[in-house]
Amino acid sequence: MRLLASFVLSLPLFAQNPGWTSEREYANVHVTFEYKLAQWAEAAFVLRTPSIGRPVQQGIAVFLAHDFHRRPGLYTTGALAGRQAPLQLLPPSFDQWHKLDITLNGNQLTVLQDGELLQRATLPHQFLLPGYLHFADLLHQYEVRNFSVRELPDTTTFLKQWKPWRLRDGGSWQTGPDWATGADGHGIQYAAPLLSNFLFAAEIKSSNNANGGIFLRGHPVKERHRGVEVQIYSPLDSVFPTGSIYGIERSRIASPTEGRWFYLQILVIGRECRVWVDGVEVAHTTQLPEFPAFGQIGLQIHMDKTQIEWRRLRALTL
Predict the structure, then answer these.
(1) Do 159-317 and 9-151 have the same topology in CATH?
(2) pLDDT (tens digit per residue) in 47-92
């Protein structure tokens, strides 16, 4: 259990790295703070967001607003930004302090403002991994004070130790407990855990338009099935660009990923597979092969004179 000391936070803070982000990740938490918005202001508090990318798009974003439009919606106070409207719309206000009380436990989220219940939500699977806390800078002035975080018990275990690694075919590889780099060749590096139904996440960067992927339910022995591939290939107009479920479902990705870190999530339950890139769903199928029903995660490099880096590899068994 950890309680953060009270402080006053005024936003906007930074131009290049807007907002404020906690120093470490949290899973289940009880968060309280007071906030005050300037007139016409918009703000957001985000839970379980990854270390890169757009927190409001990728994490659990509780929206805060002046609400001068006087209509509840997906971006009014207490809404899960873009996902779920609040249970009620409180009177619009600015230059007033309000107290927000947030409890996040597993897939259950509740939000109260000044003692009024604003939100009760059951979260989808892609938000179950731990992440950072974040106050977003939406280019409006607001203040935060008396901010505290109390960690709640977390009985969920997620995989973040991936040794030993076993290589199928070739390539030049470096590996660690939760990271790997593949370059200059053709091979798949498989990680130890056997998985069937799971949520997988990683931060990835490809260079020189590398071709590779992430194999699901595969096996490092060449005589065994290598698994189903989620493609990594940065040209947006290619046959199967990044995020595609190779040979089954083409990715709808619309933002370039070449040469930068991006956040990839894969959900596999039975024959269903969903893929998100930077918090946006890009592929979905219910037609995964029935076999293999379980196997290992494999990281692939499939091109000479290129490189793919993976870090912060995570998985949660479902």
Answers:
(1) yes
(2) 999 999 999 999 999 999 988 878 889 999 999 999 999 999 988 8
Residue 6 has a pLDDT of 41
Compute the distance between CA of residue 207 and CA of residue 200 in angstroms, rounded to an integer: 22
Q: How far apart are CA 209 and CA 207, in angstroms?
A: 5
The verdict on domain 9-151 having CATH code 2.60.120.560 is yes
d(CA 244, CA 250): 5
DSSP β-bridge partners for residue 309: 181, 205
What is the DSSP-derived secondary structure letter of residue 248? T
φ/ψ of 125, rounded to 5, equals -60, -35
Whether 206 and 212 have beta carbons less than 8 Å apart is answered as: yes
pTM: 0.92
The H or E element containing residue 287 is none
pLDDT surpasses 70 at 5: no
Burial readout 220-236 (b: 16 or more C-beta within 10 A, e: otherwise): beeeeebbbbbbbbbee
* pLDDT tens string 218-276: 999 999 999 999 999 999 999 999 999 999 999 999 999 999 999 999 999 999 999 99
Q: Where along the chain do its domains lie? A: 9-151, 159-317
Nearest to 37 by CA among 118, 91, 77, 93: 93
Mean pLDDT of all residues belonging to the chain: 92
List the one residue out of 240, 210, 220 whose CA is nearest residue 306.
210
Angle (CA) 75 13 76, round 5°: 10
Q: Which fold has domain 159-317?
A: Jelly Rolls (2.60.120)
Helices (H), 218-276: none
SS3 19: coil
